[in-house]
Design a protein that fits this description.
Number of domains: 1
Helix content: 25-40%
Number of strands: 10
Shape: globular
Number of helices: 10
Order of helices and strands: EHHHEEEEHEHEHEHHHHEE
Largest sheet: 8 strands, mixed
Radius of gyration: 17 Å
Bound molecules: 3,4-dihydroxybenzoic acid, fe (iii) ion
CATH architecture: 3-Layer(aba) Sandwich
CATH class: Alpha Beta
Strand content: 15-25%
C-alpha cells in the first residue's frame, strides 16, 4: 500500500501566539478566544495522529537571509532545530524530519518540473513552530515526523497562487507514489489578513478573509487564479502568506472535503487568525 494524504490543516502563525503559549498566558482574556478555536483540532490530532506532517510555511529571514532566497525549499534533514529569532529559540521540541519521504517528494516533484531547493540543514522559525504549538500544545516531543516546506512570501517576486495550487497537485502525486502505507497530513500556514508596516499597518479585512475561507473549501481551483496583487491590496502586504494555503488545498482529493473545523478570530497581535481542518472523503 502506498502513502496517502488524509487531511489538511490551515492556520495563521503569529509569533505572539508562540510567546503566549511559552509564557503560560493562554487563559488570559485576550488570548483565551484564540486558543478556544484550536481545542477541537488538538483533540482530533491527539486521537488520530498522522505518520507524517508535510508542513508548508514561510521562513521570516531566519534560515534564509537576503543572501539567498529559494522560492520553494524542501527540508530533507533528519532533524530541524527551533531557530533563534532574536529573543532566543522557543522552548519547543526539535522537529524530527522524514528524509526518505522528503527525498521521494523532491524526486517526484522536481521531475514534474517544479524547481525545489533541497535543504539538508535548516533551523525553523515561528512560521513552522507556532502552527505545531497551536495544534499540539506543549508536548515533550511533536507527535510525528514533520517535513518542512518553505515558501518565499517575504521578498518579491513571490510565487503565484496558481503555481502554489499546481505544486500541491504535484505533491499529492508524489505522496501517492511512495511505497509505504503512511498517513500524511499537509498543513498550509500563515495569513490571514495582516500588514505589519507602512501607512496601512494594522489592516484587517474580515469580509475578504471569510470569502477566502468559503472559496478555499468549495472552489479552490478558481480561487487559485487570484493574482498576488489582490492579496496585497485586500489582505495587506503579509496577507500574501495565504498563497501557501493553496499548496495544501491543491494536495487534497478532487472530491469535496469534509469540513471538520472552521474558525476565525480578530485580532491576535496584528493578524486575523483563520483555521480550517479539511478531511479527504
Ligand atoms: C505578526 C504576524 C506575522 O505573520 C509575522 O510573521 C510576524 C508578526 C503579528 O501579527 O504581529
Ligand atoms: Fe508571518
Amino acid at each position: 500500500m502506498s502513502a496517502r494524504i488524509t487531511a489538511s490543516v490551515y492556520t495563521s502563525h503569529v509569533p505572539a501566539i508562540g510567546a503566549a503559549i511559552d509564557l503560560g498566558k493562554t487563559a488570559e482574556p485576550y488570548w483565551q478566544p484564540v486558543f478556544a478555536g484550536y481545542e477541537f483540532g488538538k483533540r482530533w490530532l491527539r486521537d488520530d495522529p498522522p505518520d507524517v506532517i508535510f508542513l508548508v510555511y514561510n521562513d521570516h529571514a531566519t534560515a534564509f537571509s537576503l543572501e539567498m532566497i529559494p522560492t520553494f525549499a524542501i527540508g530533507t534533514a533528519a532533524e530541524f532545530a527551533p531557530a533563534d529569532e532574536g529573543w532566543g529559540p522557543r522552548p519547543v521540541p526539535t522537529v524530527i524530519g522524514h528524509p526518505e519521504l522528503a527525498s521521494h517528494i523532491a524526486q517526484s516533484v522536481i521531475q514534474d518540473d517544479f524547481d525545489l531547493t533541497i535543504v539538508n540543514k535548516m533551523d525553523v522559525d515561528h512560521g513552522l513552530t507556532v502552527p505545531l504549538s497551536l495544534m499540539c500544545g506543549q508536548p515533550q516531543a511533536w507527535p510525528c515526523p514533520v517535513i518542512p516546506f518553505a515558501v518565499n512570501v517575504v521578498q518579491y517576486p513571490v510565487p503565484s497562487g496558481r503555481r502554489c495550487w499546481q505544486l500541491g497537485r504535484a505533491i499529492r502525486k508524489a505522496v501517492a507514489s511512495f511505497d509505504r502505507p503512511l498517513k500524511v497530513q499537509i498543513w498550509g500556514t500563515g495569513g490571514m489578513s495582516h500588514q505589519l508596516q507602512g501607512p496601512r499597518a494594522g489592516l484587517i479585512n474580515r469580509d475578504w478573509d471569510n470569502r477566502f475561507l468559503d472559496r478555499l473549501i468549495a472552489d479552490p481551483a478558481d480561487l487559485a487564479q487570484l493574482p498576488h496583487i489582490d492579496y496585497v491590496r485586500e489582505a495587506g502586504s503579509e496577507g500574501i502568506e495565504l498563497v501557501m494555503w493553496l499548496i495544501a488545498r491543491g494536495a487534497m482529493s478532487d472530491a469535496p472535503p469534509r469540513v471538520l473545523q472552521r474558525f476565525y478570530h480578530v485580532p491576535a497581535s496584528n493578524t486575523a487568525v483563520g483555521h480550517l481542518i479539511l478531511e479527504n472523503t
